[in-house]
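Database export, one record per block. Field names are fixed; values are copied verbatim from the stored entry.
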Amino acid sequence: MERESARSAKPPSCLIHFELPDKRASELATKERGITVVVLPVDYATPPPLRPGDTIAVVAPSSPFPRQELLVGMAWLQARYTIVASDKMSSRHGYLAGDDERRRAELTAAIARDDVKAIIAARGGYGATRILDVDWSPMVRAPKWLVGFSDITALHCEVAKVGVRSVHAPNVTGLARVDPWTRHCFLSALERPEESLEWNNLETLREGTGEGPAIGGNLALVESMAAAGRLVLPPGAVLFLEDVTERPYRIDRMLTALRLGGYLSAVSAVVFGSFSECEPGPDGVTVQDVLAGFARDAGVPVVCGAPFGHASRNDAFILGRTVKVGKGRANFV
């Protein structure tokens, strides 16, 4: 599908501006295609750590959800926090959890409430990209955690553009299915966001080291945001990507689109999570083949097998936090 590169689109006025010291700018000037980026590291705002008893909002910005899974996930959260949720959250509008107006109003209200310390998505699926035109300014004035993954990647990208960290973690329905370790990681990210986190024994697809803010999430959503001209990757970013139920050729197509669009020109490293149920077609090409081919031409360190995505491991981590990648490790600092 043809599209205009987002680099030619006029950036929204709410975007944060990045600057880099001369040494880093010089490094970026040597990147492929001769792209020069002169910008300084952004200081992402970290929302206050959650405490037991804090108020959290559960919202449904995407698809409808299995009611029983939602109730189990909310029961676990309610044992520790005060939950607020709209009585219209269970609405259905085809493949959406209510029409755009309902979902947009719900998200806007959660962002605006001073007592809400975190906003947690009920489920992913599809629909978040339809309601990105919400007012994020209260999030800038008083940062709060946005939590979720999969389709929620679109919202993470928007929050990153206004300079606020967020948490890539299971949605509420997912909390009904995960193991104790995943729930531990979930609470750690929200209540101890500065605690050290290191993923070891990752498979190295391309050697080297990279360091920068963690950005990304679901590959299909990252590519969709790029196609919409709404994707901003800060120079030096470490790009995290995962996906589910995509044929390998589609993974290849999305990665190629990001590369051709220039979005990878200033990335310092790439971390691949799980690619669940991405079975090869009749050609026999696997996802691992695609990722290895991508890494050969990436020009930056690439590791895979990180414990996040749609597989059984979906460890929470903070987007916008600095991460060092190299020697089979991803170390959040």
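Remark 1: The first strand starts at residue 55 and ends at 59.
Remark 2: The radius of gyration is 19 Å.
End of record.
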